Amino acid sequence: MSESAAPVGVLGGTFNPIHHGHLRSALELVEQLALAQMRLMPCARPPHREAPSCTAEQRAVMAELAVAREPRLHCDRRELERDGPSYTVDTLCSLRDEFGASRPLCLVLGYDAVAGLDSWHRWQALLDYAHIVVMARPGWNWPVEGAVAEWLAAHRLEDAAGLRQRPAGGVLPVQLRPLAISSTDIRDQLAAGRSPRFLLPEPVLDYIEKHQLYRSPGAPARAR
Ligand code: ATP
């Protein structure tokens, strides 16, 4: 398969804020699976959780700052350009239009994201548009029972070569470098006046400081 037909990865998230757990995983996947690129897709209006504490525009700018020096990672703003809830199936449909019917697409989800997959809008249609690559995440396990577990098992690929044999429809579990970093922890540290430095890229931390994001009123002055 030529480079131009190599699979394209899609990592959706709230990215509130983006951190090294997202970025390292994205880069390792590009290299391990020989992806042409990874699209980091900030979610404008997450259907399954409370509205994030900063705007979609701010979360997208932080993602752009984070990937600025790595040409294989891109921030894709298409969910910010749509009205209504940001359903992943609609995003994949739009990517399919962009890349054409035969280009393999790989939707990347962490173990925590697949755990609640059956509450997603048209979740079983996801495989009509893309493969699903499931990455291990510290503190979470592969689902072993229930509708999602059965569905994942039914579509499981033997190895990464399966991602190139058809454009969509397979499930591939992958083990990457485990990094126990979460946006929740970073927000909590900032709200408590502690420094999350080295858990996320420095330009992202600079942006957070400049715009005084995730600050709780009355918190002590923040250590950098
Ligand atoms: P929050 O703590 O606010 O829930 P988060 O750190 O889980 O945020 P998201 O933006 O919700 O970040 O995650 C986007 C995607 O990246 C999800 O599929 C999630 O499973 C995955 N992910 C996030 N952090 C890691 C990590 N440290 N290791 C592996 N996967 C991760």
From TrEMBL:
SUPFAM superfamilies: Nucleotidylyl transferase
Taxonomic source organism: Parahaliea maris
Cross-referenced NCBIfam families: nicotinate (nicotinamide) nucleotide adenylyltransferase, PRK00071.1-1, PRK00071.1-3
Pathway this chain belongs to: Cofactor biosynthesis; NAD(+) biosynthesis; deamido-NAD(+) from nicotinate D-ribonucleotide: step 1/1
Source organism phylogeny: Bacteria, Pseudomonadati, Pseudomonadota, Gammaproteobacteria, Cellvibrionales
Catalytic activities: nicotinate beta-D-ribonucleotide + ATP + H(+) = deamido-NAD(+) + diphosphate
Short name of any one Pfam family annotated for the protein: CTP_transf_like
Record's protein name: Probable nicotinate-nucleotide adenylyltransferase
Entry EC no(s): 2.7.7.18
GO biological process: NAD+ biosynthetic process
Span of the signal peptide: none
Ranges for domain Cytidyltransferase-like: 10-188
InterPro entries linked: Cyt_trans-like, NadD/NMNAT, Rossmann-like_a/b/a_fold
Keywords assigned by UniProt, alphabetized: ATP-binding, NAD, Nucleotide-binding, Nucleotidyltransferase, Pyridine nucleotide biosynthesis, Transferase
Function: Catalyzes the reversible adenylation of nicotinate mononucleotide (NaMN) to nicotinic acid adenine dinucleotide (NaAD).
Molecular function (Gene Ontology), one example: ATP binding
Family recorded in the similarity comment: Belongs to the NadD family.
Enzyme class (EC, first level): transferase
Record flagged with keyword Transferase: yes
